[in-house]
Amino acid sequence: MAELFSKKNNEALVTPLFKNNPVTIQVLGICSALAVTSKLAPAVVMGLSVTIIVAMSNVIISLIRKTIPNRIRIIIQLVVVAALVTMVSEVLKAFAYDVSVQLSVYIGLIITNCILMGRLEAFAMQNGPWASFLDGIGNGLGYAFILVILAFVRELFGSGTLFDIPVIPDWAYQAGYINNGLMLMAPMAFFLIACIIWVQRAKDKSLQEE
Amino acid sequence: MKILRNYLNKIKPNFEEGGKLSAFRSVFDGMETFLFVPNDTSKNGVNIHDAIDSKRIMSFVVIALLPALLVGMYNIGYQNALAAGTLETTTGLQMFLYGLLLMLPKIVVSYGVGLGIEFIVAQLKKEEIHEGFLVSGLLIPMVVPVGCPLWVLAIATAFSVIFAKEVFGGTGMNIVNVALIARAFIFFAYPSVISGDSVWVATEPVLGLGAAAPDGYTCATALQHVANGGEVLGAAGTALSPCDMMLGLMPGSIGETSVIAIAIGAIILLWSGVASWKTMFSVFVGGIAMSLLFQYTLPENPVAQAPFYTHLILGGFCFGAVFMATDPVTSARTETGKYIYGFGIGAMAILIRVLNPGYPEGMMLAILLMNVVAPFIDYCVVQSNVNARARRLIKKN
Q1: What is the pLDDT of residue A184?
Q2: Are the CB atoms for A34 and A112 separated by under 8 Å?
Q3: Taking the mean position of all CA atoms in its chain, how far away is CA A122?
């Protein structure tokens, strides 16, 4: 049991959350971070889907890593990821149809999410299944964490709602408050990600270049 | 002057390192160099000294902006009187004061927010205060309609100062025009306060001045009328005369309406050498060329069929050409590049006006686009010069 949460495994789980966050530090998965974060609900679902898919594909690739011929490893990784993405997509269609409509192509496009291929190539091909599982969970949650922050700000100021429940009171609108339309557009997500990166780098001296 | 100098000398020690007011060092420094030419103009490495520095340049631009600002204030009152039908009973002074009352809070908010951020950044980075906001702070209230709420103006100013200027390193380092970014922010974030037909004319009395317009009063800008293919109507619902258009007595953003006031500003800028005539001239050439081109190729489009001179006197074309396109920081710096840059702005503005039915005005987006392209234009001009010289050298040998 002690080995299950050794220092190395812990690091695999925790560092992607903040210190080596896939979105703000490695700047991966930006495309979907811009596209699905105008509302909280799809952002949460997207974050969880990516977490599950990264964790599962990490485990599967890690289990068969010694039998994969080096030349065709990308194809095999893609097959595994594609199978998992299709499964998640079907489950969403069956149990959360509204959200899956909102996410439209972006669930399918998880296949092309750089975080997935990056983790498979960089971690799962060299490490055991348990460590790979933790690494997948860590990276997925790190991605989901940023998505939720973005979606929270964008939905609150862009639509005045959270999870589609109005939170800005009516008297504010009557006093002249207007929702910020730019928040609902993709460029504002860029600005917000930039702000998060800015804050993180300002706080953490080790991330600053000379 | 001498008294002021002595007073500044007396209070100076308070603001230096260790003084009791050292937290406001940058504020003091900014005010001192604004009032007097600093004694130490450079510390090292500069060989050429000029009597003019960037604070003096900024002052010239502000002076050049004043005619447009004053006419804009008068026009606010004039449009209000037209809308309320009280033109006969309102004097010119009352109209002007009404405009002043509506305009002053906008200017105060813009300067307050913008300079506040500049002071904080200067203090944090232990630098001098940059003077660039002196112009931007006046431009921002002049490029919005009179109905723009103050809190929107404050957010837009903060956004543009932080993201268009400070993140690039402050005054002189920005890629795009700060005042236009503020306007673009309002345009995309709060479209209802900067487009449509209910924000261009003030409809409420303020402190006893002005009059209330009828309920549900609407008035579109001249360009919106052109885009709809109808006659260009003024605030009273009658057709605008060319004289009104030239004087600027029509609905629109506060500073942009008067061609004559902007022309006076242009003369000041050109005479003082702050703005480049090449940029200004080629913006107009680009606009005229593009509108003539569309006039003959798009017979169905109402905007394309408007005579080319209407394009130049309506909307923000003149204001953009004189005050925005010529911004020395964001425009092209090579002399040939200025022609290309200006022509691109004029042509692109008309292109957006004619071909995009959603945006009756294209000057803002055209200038922002060419701001981004300007360094590339400069690169091409410099490279072609380098290549030409290289060829000449090879030929000679």
Answers
A1: 87
A2: no
A3: 17
**Alpha carbon distance B377, B373 (integer Å):** 6
Q: Phi and psi (nearest 5°) for B317?
A: -60, -50
The CA-based diameter of chain B, rounded to the nearest angstrom, is 82
Min Cα separation A129/chain B (Å): 43
Q: B261-292, pLDDT tens digit by residue?
A: 999 999 999 998 888 899 999 999 999 999 89
The proportion of chain B whose per-residue pLDDT surpasses 90, expressed as a percent, equals: 29
> A181 to chain B nearest CA, in Å?
4
- Inform me whether the pLDDT recorded for B154 exceeds 90: yes
SS3 label, residue B41 = coil
What pLDDT shows up at residue A32? 83
A→B contacts (Cβ < 8 Å), by residue, are 176, 178, 180-183, 185, 191
Selection from A15-29, A87-101, B92-106, B368-382 with the highest mean pLDDT: B368-382
Nearest in space to B311 (alpha carbons), one of B289, B344, B326, B296: B289
Q: Is a pLDDT exceeding 90 seen at residue B371?
A: yes
Question: B313, B207, B261: which is closest to B64 by C-alpha?
Answer: B261
Among A154, A174, A180, A195, most B C-beta atoms within 10 A, so best to mutate, is A180
Q: Give how far B285 is from chain A: nearest CA, Å.
A: 33
Domain boundaries, chain B: 23-37+55-274, 276-391
Tell me, what's the pLDDT at A163? Answer: 85
Q: Which of A110, A122, A111 is nearest to A20 (CA)?
A: A122
Q: How far apart are CA A139 and CA A53, in angstroms?
A: 11
CB contact under 8 A, B189 and A182: yes
User: ipTM exceeding 0.85?
Assistant: no
Q: What is the 3-state secondary structure (H, E, C) of B321-347?
A: HHHHCCCCCCCCCCHHHHHHHHHHHHH
Contact B189 A191 (CB under 8 A): no
Q: Which of B153, B161, B190, B194 is the mutation pick for testing A, counting most A CBs within 10 A? A: B190
Region B211-233: mean pLDDT is 74
CA distance B203 to chain A (A): 16
Domain range summary for chain A, segments of one domain joined by +:
23-204
Rounded to an integer, what distance in angstroms lies between the CA atom of residue B26 and that of residue B24? 6
**pLDDT at residue number A33:** 85
Q: How many CB atoms lie within 10 A of CB B295?
A: 17
* Local confidence band at A200 (pLDDT 50, 70, 90 cut-offs): confident
Tokens representing B389 are 């010289």
Tens digit of pLDDT for each residue in B8-30? 777 777 776 666 666 666 677 76
Tokens of A191: 């600005």
Half-sphere exposure of A140 (CA within 13 A, CB side): 24
Query: Any alpha helices (H) in chain A, and if so which ranges?
Result: 7-14, 30-35, 40-63, 73-95, 97-103, 105-108, 114-119, 129-158, 170-174, 186-203
pTM of the prediction?
Answer: 0.86
